[in-house]
UniProtKB/TrEMBL annotation:
The keyword Zinc-finger does not apply. InterPro entries: dTDP_dehydrorham_reduct, RmlD-like-bd. Pathway: Carbohydrate biosynthesis; dTDP-L-rhamnose biosynthesis. GO terms for molecular function: dTDP-4-dehydrorhamnose reductase activity. It comes from Clostridium simiarum. It comes from the Bacteria. Keywords: NADP, Oxidoreductase. Its EC number is 1.1.1.133. Residues 1-290 form the RmlD-like substrate binding domain. Belongs to the dTDP-4-dehydrorhamnose reductase family. Catalyzes the reduction of dTDP-6-deoxy-L-lyxo-4-hexulose to yield dTDP-L-rhamnose. This is dTDP-4-dehydrorhamnose reductase.
Length: 292
């Protein structure tokens, strides 16, 4: 099998590659079909997914059977300032990959976000719930979802949340660094969601991709918390002496509005391949042990 991975240097793309190369993740073995696969790992300097003609040229040369799109513009606040760029990468990029996947008869994995929901409820969102994003980031990712559904017939859309991994920057690394340097942190306590370890998400992406269980999935760590709870756990598991204080979103005053409650329910995983995502605290503790 020939696999094209976009955004290959990011925390999710690199994790997927590591798991394929090892033949297993922390959750267990992956399908033997990956044993002899050819990985074509491309990042933005090698493939501009916003350019349809370049995507078609690459597709014609490489002829992938599976495309995993890990490329995205994920800086939520900057998306508000660079709306066109956000939609080019998150929406048109997804559309372009969907078009070439359909032309090749390839499968496409598109990674999306909990921010496609408004977050004004108090129960975890299921895959069938109505989307209503508040931010440019959420809107651009939702349009990307819609393009994938419109232009590709063999797709897996995985919505995830609060992602962290070994490569690149993320909330866990930021908190660990700030805790060491400052000894005191203030973190919002009025936004709730699901911290997700890239290792666990990557494992489930690879498990789904060998099936024909096409559709939309939620794939996040089990359990929910606030960013404040998340930060406190990071400091605790890292054994860093640091005081963490709760604040409100209004006090933080950010450019993009976040959903106050965007927890996801991995219902369709349970109904198909099984939901083996770890409890967010268990996964976080394992990750911090690796980082340290």
């Amino acid at each position: 099998m020939k696999i094209l991975i976009t955004g290959a240097k990011g925390q999710l793309g690199s994790q997927i590659i590591n798991i394929i190369n090892n033949g297993q993740s922390e959750l267990g073995n992956i399908d033997s079909v990956y044993n002899n696969c050819e990985i074509m790992a491309l990042d933005v300097d090698e493939l501009d997914i916003t350019n349809l003609n370049k995507c078609k040229t690459v597709a014609k040369e490489l002829k992938p059977e599976l495309i995993i799109n890990c490329a995205a513009y994920t800086n939520v606040d900057n998306c508000e300032k660079q709306e066109d760029l956000a939609f080019k990468i998150n929406a048109l990029g997804a559309r372009n990959l969907a078009i070439i996947a359909e032309e090749l008869g390839a499968k496409l994995v598109q990674v999306s976000t909990d921010y496609v929901f408004a977050g004004n409820g108090n129960e975890p969102y299921k895959e069938y719930d109505i989307t209503n994003p508040l931010s440019v980031y959420g809107k651009s990712k939702l349009l990307g979802e819609n393009y994938v559904r419109e232009f590709c017939s063999r797709y897996f859309i995985l919505r995830t949340a609060w992602l962290y991994g070994l490569n690149g920057s993320n909330f866990v690394k930021t908190i660990m660094k700030a805790a060491k340097e400052k000894g005191e942190l203030k973190v919002v306590n009025d936004q709730r969601g699901n911290p997700t370890y890239a290792e666990d998400l990557a494992h489930h992406i690879l498990a789904l991709a060998v099936t024909e269980e096409y559709g939309i999935y939620h794939c996040t760590g089990q359990g929910e918390c606030s960013w404040y709870d998340f930060a406190k756990a990071i400091v605790e598991y890292s054994n860093i002496p640091c005081k963490v204080e709760p604040i409100t979103s209004e006090q933080l005053d950010r450019a993009a509005k976040r959903p106050s409650y965007s927890s996801l329910d991995n219902m369709m995983l349970r109904c198909t391949i099984g939901n083996n995502m770890r409890d967010w605290k268990e996964a976080l503790e394992k990750f911090i042990c690796k980082v340290k």
